[in-house]
Amino acid sequence: MYWRLGPEYKRRPRDDNRRAMHSIVSHGIPPGLLAFDHDNPDRAVGWCQLTPRADLDWLDHPRYTEPVDDADVLSLSCFYVHREYRQRGVAAALVKAACEMAERANAPAVEAYPVDTDVPGSTSNVFTGTVAMFAAAGFVVVAARTPSRPIMRLWLT
């Protein structure tokens, strides 16, 4: 809920955030994708948020993520991977699946807001993904208002 509410999500009771996400899921376009364990297909092990940038008001924050242009992009803004499944390619698989879904939806591009962990002093909070992961998927930097937090895109059309 961070990209929808900004810091307010931390001040709200967890159940309020859960109900808000449930409402989003049940009343419109799904807000992302789930990854499941290949050997245990009933177990969700990861999630990524994929949604129109216009639905994420907090992305208009001028310091890092102010819009680059008026392209009608889908934003790949947040990841969660269960700790037992980290460093196994789950997030990269979610990026690939999200891009395939965006292409089927005729989106012009997918945009991401990763952390460049190679920049000294960058945050270790990589819930938005890493530059290396997105670069490996073909994304390119389209803006970098601060060195450690570029905006990256994969053009689909």
From TrEMBL:
<dbReference type="Pfam" id="PF00583">
    <property type="entry name" value="Acetyltransf_1"/>
</dbReference>
<dbReference type="InterPro" id="IPR016181">
    <property type="entry name" value="Acyl_CoA_acyltransferase"/>
</dbReference>
<keyword id="KW-0808">Transferase</keyword>
<protein>
    <submittedName>
        <fullName>GNAT family N-acetyltransferase</fullName>
        <ecNumber>2.3.1.-</ecNumber>
    </submittedName>
</protein>
<keyword id="KW-0012">Acyltransferase</keyword>
<dbReference type="GO" id="GO:0016746">
    <property type="term" value="F:acyltransferase activity"/>
</dbReference>
<feature type="domain" description="N-acetyltransferase">
    <location>
        <begin position="1"/>
        <end position="157"/>
    </location>
</feature>
<dbReference type="InterPro" id="IPR000182">
    <property type="entry name" value="GNAT_dom"/>
</dbReference>
